[in-house]
Amino acid sequence: MSRNDRDYEEKRDYIRMRVDADVNLIHAGQVIPAVCIDLSSSGMQVQAPRAFQIGDKLSVRIDSDHAALKGLEAEPRWCGSMMKKAADRNWGFQSCP
């Protein structure tokens, strides 16, 4: 099967890993609880109760449930957003140059 014959989701440059984990977004000193939907090597998709502006810098924390494993901490810049459904608040973070 050629690349053009594959479904759109398979054409992505980076595979998304489904996570469904609680995450804290920190913006301007405010902690915003959210849910990480998925991760890829160049970004993440979260479901959050509020919107952000393109270029906003945030800190992201995903705590680990296991003492032996360190959680994930990142400081992405908000490069864009997407809405999956009108009722959902799914936003895409992307690593910006």
Summarize the structure in short.
With 97 residues, the protein is mainly beta.
Structural overview:
The protein has 97 residues and is mainly β. It has one domain: Beta Barrel (Thrombin, subunit H), CATH 2.40.10. It contains no helices and 6 strands. It has a 6-stranded antiparallel β-sheet, with no helix packed on it. β2 and β3 form a beta hairpin. The chain is globular and about 35 Å long.
Element layout with pairings:
Elements: E1 17-27, E2 30-40, E3 43-47, E4 59-62, E5 72-74, E6 90-94
Antiparallel strand pairs: 1-2, 1-4, 2-3, 3-6, 4-5
- State the major sheet: 6 strands, antiparallel
What is the CATH class name? Mainly Beta
Spatial strand arrangement across the major sheet: 5-4-1-2-3-6
Name the quaternary structure. Answer: single chain
State the CATH topology: Thrombin, subunit H
Whole-number tally of structural domains: 1
Helix content estimate: under 10%
Note the total helix count. Answer: 0
Helix-strand topology string: EEEEEE
Regions with pLDDT < 50 over 5+ consecutive residues?
82-87
For the residues shown, what is the average pLDDT? 73
Helical/strand content category? mainly beta
Shape, per Cα inertia axes: globular
Strand content: 35-45%
CATH-level-2 architecture: Beta Barrel
Task: Give the number of DSSP strands.
Answer: 6
Pfam families: PilZ
InterPro entries: PilZ_domain (IPR009875)
Protein name: PilZ domain-containing protein
GO molecular function, one term: cyclic-di-GMP binding
